[in-house]
Amino acid sequence: MSVSGFERRATTEESPSLVVPIETLLYSGNAALERARTVRDELRDAWQRAGGTATDPTMSSLLDELSDLLDLAVTG
């Protein structure tokens, strides 16, 4: 199928639009905080496996502060 054929088919009424508002793809509010906490935990685990945070006190301190701020934001 050609690209032009795909475009024609995608714009018919029975086909869903391929263009979505950017807001539907972004995190916001509590979902953003929860995702940030998940990323934080995954980052901490990855750094510990690599020996990173233990060897750099500045990075470790910044990650700890970010962790505390994220937890405070969720608990109000």
Report on this structure.
The protein is mainly α and 76 residues long. The protein has a domain at 23-75. It has four helices and no strands. The model is unreliable at 1-10 (pLDDT under 50).
Question: What are the defining features of this structure?
Answer:
mainly alpha; disordered N terminus; 0% strand; 76 residues; elongated
Tell me the layout of helices and strands.
Elements: H1 3-10, H2 29-50, H3 52-55, H4 57-75
In short:
Helices cover 70% and strands 0% of the residues. The protein is mainly alpha-helical and 76 residues long.
Instruction: Work out the helix count.
Output: 4
Q: Shape from CA axes?
A: elongated
What helical percentage do the residues reach? Answer: 55-70%
Q: Give the percentage of residues in beta strands.
A: under 5%
Mind describing the biggest β-sheet?
none
Mean pLDDT: 75
